[in-house]
Write a structure and sequence with these properties.
This protein is an all-alpha fold and 482 residues long. It contains 17 helices and no strands.
């Protein structure tokens, strides 16, 4: 069920009304209803994959109780391994089995040995990478004695399958989200209004910005050999805004929807394209995944402690694993490696935490130095996005080589899709709104509230009309494939 689909437009109000009208007085009924609604939401794609969520839920619920019930380290580790093998085993099979099979065949063929290995027709369950990491963090935190296990199975199952963030995040920690299922939730008008405002901005990002940028980006990447360097350059810039609008738009809708039901999810994007270096970019892009790898992989490996070799090794590992998490393709691994290479000079010279606060926090405009740094960071990010979007490595290298030739200085042309001046105006307006709203958790959080009521409501209606105007150009969320 897509957030911007007619199905969800019917589903959400019904669930909202029943939740607050009939379930608000009883916590157990609230959680049971959220669980049921979440399973309906996920089963809308393919009900058979509900068994995988249920299996992960049952395993981690039982493992959490078992780990907490004993102080014996070997027993605790045994149950943790059960959780790791179950969750990562399911993820590995559905997402990476054919990748490893194909690469094994290529290795043997390199030595002149032919293996007759047939790939399986495996359908990747939507959101498996997200809810797998969410349940894993729960059992790992219990193992580390950071949290206590949840004894209420319904509350835990609702935490695992919570429909707003089930299929594409944010990847929540049990320490933040699970306690919200164990305390009474009362309707908060101001929180619900704020949630609707964030949903509105998320829809603008997705329907207006991302889906329209996709038209140009898809043409450039689908027919790379037919276009000039300038056209391909514009194509990758549009893809950068497509993936940002697509994924951060989903996160905004998810967080806003959760607020309608009295839940607070973590911020997942913090205006990453205004970053002044790549370290700042990764503190602001897909925050829930970046911090997950930091806490459960980078720090256990030693983090930034130890020798320079250890720091470099750990940085390379976390970025390579992050790339591989995104999909079974060497393009994602190279994308991760390229970001690691960007990051290493900052780490080596101890400059990776020099830009913690948002840019120009006390002024309306950035300094010349900040502007140059933002442009440079955005440029190298776009270069890495080529590998993320390309079908394979040959496609990526061909795309890059065609950008950097003399045709880069020609006028870009897009046969079959023109750059509409009105959309370019909307894109520029969107960037301006993001800039002036960068101090909030999303652009409209504080920005519109400073306007007079008639102007504020005029903006909301204008955004709604614009969303409906562009709603016929529907594109699936990019991160559904992960």
């Amino acid at each position: 069920m897509l957030f911007y689909s007619f199905d969800f437009l019917i589903f959400l109000p019904i669930v909202f009304l029943i939740y607050w009208r009939f379930a608000s007085s009883n916590l157990k009924f609230q959680n049971l209803f959220v669980l049921s609604a979440s399973y309906v939401f996920y089963g809308w794609w393919d009900w058979k994959f509900l068994s995988l969520i249920l299996l992960s839920t049952l395993v981690d619920y039982c493992v959490g109780l078992k780990i907490s019930s004993t102080e014996k380290s070997t027993t605790r580790k045994f149950y943790l391994i059960i959780s790791l093998l179950t969750n990562l085993g399911l993820l590995g099979f559905f997402k990476y089995f054919n990748f490893f099979l194909d690469n094994l065949s290529e290795v043997y063929s390199f030595f002149g040995i032919s293996l007759q290995l047939n790939s399986l027709n495996i359908i990747l369950p939507v959101g498996i990478s997200f809810y797998t990491f969410q349940t894993l963090s729960y059992t790992i935190d219990i193992y580390r004695n950071k949290i206590l296990p949840e004894k209420d199975f319904i509350a835990f199952a609702a935490f695992v399958s919570f429909f707003p963030q089930l299929v594409a995040g944010p990847i929540e920690r049990a320490s933040n989200l699970l306690p919200q299922f164990t305390r009474n939730r009362k309707f908060d008008y101001s929180k619900a209004v704020d949630g609707l405002r964030q949903i509105l901005w998320g829809l603008v990002k997705k329907v207006v910005i991302a889906d329209n940028c996709a038209r140009i980006a898809n043409i450039a990447f689908d027919s790379t050999g037919d276009f000039s360097g300038s056209t391909l350059f514009v194509g990758v810039v549009f893809f950068a805004f497509q993936i940002y609008g697509d994924f951060s738009g989903y996160s905004d809708i998810a967080i806003g929807t959760a607020r309608l039901f009295g839940f607070d999810l973590k911020q997942n994007f913090a205006f990453p394209y205004f970053s002044r270096d790549i370290a700042e970019f990764w503190r602001r892009w897909h925050i829930s995944l970046s911090t997950w790898f930091r806490d459960y992989l980078y720090i256990p490996l030693g983090g930034s402690r130890g020798s320079l070799y250890t720091k470099i090794r750990n940085t390379m590992i976390i970025f390579l694993v992050s790339g591989f998490w995104h999909g079974p393709n060497w393009t994602f691994i190279i994308w991760g490696a390229l970001n690691a290479i960007y990051f290493l000079p900052l780490l080596i010279f101890n400059r990776n935490r020099q830009n913690i606060e948002i840019v120009a926090i006390n002024s309306h405009l950035p300094t010349l130095k900040d502007s140059i740094n933002i442009l440079a960071t955005f440029s190298i990010t776009c270069l890495a996005w080529i590998f993320f979007r390309a079908e394979n490595l040959d496609h990526a290298f061909n795309y890059i080589s065609r950008i950097f030739d003399k045709s880069l200085f020609t006028i870009p042309k897009f046969p079959g899709a023109k750059l509409e001046p009105f959309f370019l105006f909307l894109l520029l307006t969107f960037i301006i709104f993001e800039w002036f709203g960068r101090r909030g958790k999303y652009a409209l959080e504080k920005l519109a509230l400073t306007w007079n009521r008639p102007f504020r409501w005029a903006l909301y209606y204008l955004l709604i009309v614009t969303i409906f105007w562009y709603s016929n150009n529907e594109q699936e969320f990019i991160y559904f494939q992960f």
